[in-house]
């Protein structure tokens, strides 16, 4: 039976993995920035500054994924137009998306600078943690503008199936981020030690250079010449902008509901103490790394689904989507095993504080289970996004994380005195709910497409 199943889906496994692999690396690039920040600060600056990184990343990530989600509205539209061989429309969509994302980046910067910075001292956190957090957040806030520009060109290229270049840019950008982060945090080559502020500066430099290089590549490469014939930054129209926002805005809310649930959990855990908060940062960073792999698989599923939709090939659309489910379940099962078996070793990558390591080791066992559901739910979102179904999935994410996950976690953590583990159990159940409901939604919508094609 397994052999017959493998034979049936083998062509789709290969196609999806070839497309997904570079996307996975570039997706990890976003998370690698925060992982590098955590490791560098944890090793060279201590537990209090690591807790500051946890607090800032929890707040910044909420705003960042709002921008990232909005930029993802371009990809399925590009994939669909490319599948239908309507190449000139791709350049027009890029024009509108670039302007939307530049404006969004500026607005998100203003929100972070004037909003988040003003409330960070009123969240019940340690005054020492807040003092370190503010300058770090200020630098990260400015980096969101070049990040949105990079995302525009990245999503355009990936929507057309050119995924390798964004991967290479992400790799070199993150190497640069690590090198500069160590130099700035420790204080090397005559530079005064900056502590946590140093990783904020390295991130800003990294994202600015990545945006510049990705933009030059897309605008000058002959691979995109046929698509850019009608690219004009000033040629913005309401119809195409509405198309992008109609998909991008709900996708942004999907990410907001999920990421804000984890960020809210970090803030709640911060009221327990700096050690649990630092342990949460370690465990959630490792789990987020595997999530980025699943997210890359989901992005490839979005592209392939959009291509098949443009071709009106609904049978292959469904099979390709199911193959993506298979791939993500296999990967997440392997990493779940790693988390469980190495739960006492992995925290040493971040800190030598034995109290933090003990708590993080317990959380990694829970993370091993919930990432299975995290992987399947993000693939479900990716497939549905590819066929333009974004509104109901947005409601499902809200229900799963904010009506079920966070309230249940708070109840288990504080009312049943389970502490940080109780909060993580609640998040796990929220992910389980989302993965089941999104799979049912996928089954319904794809079967409906196939039935419609035969009528």
UniProtKB/TrEMBL annotation:
Location(s) in or outside the cell: Cell membrane
Membrane topology: Multi-pass membrane protein
Transmembrane segments: 48-72, 132-150, 171-189, 255-276, 282-303, 324-350, 356-373, 394-416, 422-440
Pfam family, one: MatE
Major place of residence: membrane
Record has Cell membrane as a keyword: yes
Keyword annotations of the record: Antiport, Cell membrane, Ion transport, Membrane, Transmembrane, Transmembrane helix, Transport
Protein name: Multidrug-efflux transporter
